[in-house]
Amino acid sequence: MAAAMGAWSARNRRTAVFGWLLFVVLATVLGGAHGGTKVTEAESMPGQVARAARILDDAGLKSPASETVLVQSPTRSADDPEFRTAVGQVTAAVNGTGKAAEVRSPYDTKAVSQDGHSALVLVTLKGDHDEAVENVQAVMDAVAGVQRQNPGLTVVELGDASSGKWIQDQFKNDFARAEWTAVPLALGILLVAFGALVAAVLPVVLALTAFIAAGGLVALSSGLLHTSDDASSVMLLVGLAVGVDYCLFYLRREREERAAGRDARTALAVAAATSGRAVLVSGVTVVVAMAGMFLTGIADFRAMAFATILVVITAVLGSLTVLPALLSMLGDRVDKGRLPLLGKLRRPDAAQTGGRFWNAVLTPVLRRPLAATLLAGTFLLALAAPLLTMHTANLTFRQQLPSGNALVAASQKIEAAFPGSPAPATVVIKAADIDSPAMTAAIADLKARALASGRMHGPVEVAVHADKNIATVDIPLNGTGNDATSNDALKTLREDLVPATVLKVPGTEAPVTGRTAGSYDFNAQMTGSMPLVLGFVVLFAFLLMLTSFRSLAVAGTAVALNLLSVGAAYGVLTLVFQHGVGASLLGTAGVGAVESWVPLFLFVILFGLSMDYHVFVVSRIKEGRDRGLPTRAAIAHGIRSTAGVVTSAAVIMVAVFAVFGTLSMQAMKQMGVGLAVAVLIDATVIRAVLLPSVMTLLGERNWYLPRWLGWLPDLSHGESVPPLGAASTLPGQPGTPAPAPEGARHRRIEV
């Protein structure tokens, strides 16, 4: 298929190029006109939290965004006239913005700390959460004005809308920074890899156009499958990495064949039949791996999976169609804009021999494969060991934000003055008659039992919507909101108190939601779905490798080596972000947990991306064996001839992922560092040491396929690399010989 697509593209160059441009423009314009539909809260969270959100949505009730303004003095008490004046200024300033639905004074709510030096002004903003995020800046400015008027006091604000605005703005800023940093980085690395401007620019341009087109397609289809901000970040991350890599594989092979003395048409034919096929198999593997995220049942993961699948398919399509057309148009002019210094540094035979460094690594590995296997395997297992202590959690905004952030500082001040979880659990009660005596008594009983449990504290607030037959009961939990104390309190509320009170009234639903509940339900869903996702990805990756290479050993080693690299990445992630080892070097600190969605996301992404290198390298090894080389010589040839490409591709991926490791959000840092470490390990320890040593130990058993598996679809190499001076074997090109009979498909050809 890859060869046929390359042949069509080479014959219809203008159609391919202008067709691609038209596709990108149409996808972008139509997607922009349609706009993106974002995932709702009811979709984004599982369990009782999702049910509570649906009850409120169906009733047309929006959870109001609340803000808290802390007024604090180290010397004056809340009864002091100056303190009271400052509280009055906060109340008047916030009301004056016109953005607040309700402002409650601490002298009415009794929200004064035990030492009397701190008080909380409670603000409820108008509209739903999104509207509150848009309007909260006016309230924040008003509070900042009161702080300037009272330099002797602390006047700070914290809440759902202010933290939501910071995160929203930071996402936009980080996304722009990642885009403007990653693209020049990739271009610079490609300049070093090719030593020519045109050859370096081609992969970056194709990757960016693939990303832009995929973004339009995601927006266009978001009415059916809602998207999210996370999906856009992940799409850039993966799209740029795979888009550049796929073009790099293709372009390097075409340049290599031209340097070996083949004519332009044959060089392009060989690249299409070999690297093009590797790109196709790699793309299918990434798509299948990402499809596993649909099994989580979480809308954000479905959005990320769908966006990634679209960008990978688009990148594969561009690499197999428009790239051959451009190479056919440019010919040897693809080497235009050569950088003289880089040309002098590059050895002419480096593409075939792998260069001095990789020769120095590979020679002892092939000489002593057992020792190399044991050493590399032990090293990776040691890196993976901290995985046994990994603790996952849905990180709070305080953990997500960088240290020193104003919102983090405000949160610490509020928690110190008012111990206990700042975000209450909310019992959403839907009853047949919310005003019935039985329900009124049950809600009162729930309040009393919650305060008597010792795991929750006041104030407990009840809001009744009689016309909707719905009530909400806000109950603050002990703990920080994300620790074992808060989780135990949540379990007590859900499993003991709610069933013993409001659920005893017939026809009542009472799911418990809130920040702690959201984290707990999310983790439970992740834990439950992880074995299913892992099994799906591993099984289909194994089957794809089995049908692509017709070998049990190749498929088995591919899965085993990928699992090792993922395990090592997990270990590093746990060591750095959970235990804080080396975290300061990354401008962060250990937060005691790994973001709950990161391990599963990393597994799926890495299992797909690792196949890029594996398919590319093993394809070259198989190609050498098919033309008559002994297995050991084929391994040496395959590793050496792909070393430069794999190195360049890995450096690009590591650089792009490392950019995300510098972003502000803790989850983005963890994702970027985890991916960068895994790709670095995969391209060095796995591909340069473990893969050749294990394949050398297996010998001819690498190519073993039991007879009883002969019924499997044959997706193995069907095209032979022609000898120098021979006609191209690319199907569909003028002068191409007819396909060989079935029995002759794998005949060995000496080159």
Write the layout of secondary structure elements.
Blueprint: H1 2-11, H2 13-34, H3 41-44, H4 47-58, E1 66-72, H5 81-97, E2 100-104, H6 106-109, E3 118-125, H7 129-149, E4 154-159, H8 160-194, H9 197-221, H10 229-259, H11 264-273, H12 275-291, H13 299-320, H14 322-330, H15 340-345, H16 350-353, H17 355-367, H18 369-384, E5 392-393, H19 397-400, H20 406-417, E6 425-430, H21 437-452, E7 461-465, E8 470-475, H22 484-500, E9 512-513, H23 515-549, H24 552-578, E10 594-595, H25 598-626, H26 631-660, H27 666-698
Parallel strand pairs: 5-10
Antiparallel strand pairs: 1-3, 1-4, 2-3, 6-8, 6-9, 7-8
What would a concise description of this structure say?
The radius of gyration is 30 Å and the shape is elongated. The chain has helices at 2-11, 13-34, 41-44, 47-58, 81-97, 106-109, 129-149, 160-194, 197-221, 229-259, 264-273, 275-291, 299-320, 322-330, 340-345, 350-353, 355-367, 369-384, 397-400, 406-417, 437-452, 484-500, 515-549, 552-578, 598-626, 631-660, 666-698; strands spanning 66-72, 100-104, 118-125, 154-159, 392-393, 425-430, 461-465, 470-475, 512-513, 594-595. A hairpin with a 4-residue loop joins strand 7 and strand 8.
Question: Mind explaining what this structure looks like?
Answer:
- With 751 residues, the chain is α+β, with helices and mostly antiparallel strands.
- The chain has 27 helices and ten strands.
- The protein has a four-stranded antiparallel β-sheet with strand order 2-3-1-4, with helices on both faces. It has a four-stranded antiparallel β-sheet with strand order 7-8-6-9, sandwiched between helices.
- Helix 10 runs antiparallel to helix 26 (631-660), helix 12 packs antiparallel against helix 25 and helix 26 packs antiparallel against helix 27 (666-698).
- The radius of gyration is 30 Å and the shape is elongated.
- The protein starts with a helix and ends in a 53-residue tail after the last helix.
- Mean pLDDT is 82; it is low at 347-353 and 724-751.
